[in-house]
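User: structure tokens for Coenzyme Q-binding protein COQ10 START domain-containing protein, please.
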Amino acid sequence: MSALSRFIFTLTAIFLLALSHVVSGVEPEIVINIERNGDAFIVDTKFDLPVPLRTAWEVLTDFDNMTGILSNLTSSKIVRRDGKILYVAQEGLARFGILSYAFASEREIRLEPMKRILARQITGNAERFESELELTQSGSATRVHYRAEVVPDSGLARTFGGRFIKHEVEEQFTAMAAEMMRRNAR
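Assistant: Done. Predicted tokens:
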């Protein structure tokens, strides 16, 4: 290999190494669509992360440690297990501008390991909450596709519902994505 070839090879390697550090620190582009259907808000969210599917799954299902991941949670615990079904109780305070909203819920979480998480509110502040989160591996990245149907419990919540829900979904998935990246870097 000539001196010029070695020089070009070295520059290319340095560039690719530097690029990998830049890419790994980039926040994901979280695409969130909210539509209203009567009293319900329909959420459709997608994003890709440069982490293994297993890392994404571990963060998304770490309910007992979720208060360390999501800043709006004050309590999160698995209260019962029944095979691949978990019952999770969470409490917290969501903020939107000058408004804040205390919440509490218990949800039934159905796990299809490394593929899908189905959630249904049993008790809580919303009239109805159901969601589905699907994970797929695409090369070295993981695609997250989240869909939810939320019926708020009050007129005030319905008035600000779409913007508030979008804000909360973005905040929560940004925090979970950061935790996935942190765990993947270990």
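User: Anything notable?

Assistant: The chain has one domain: 29-185.
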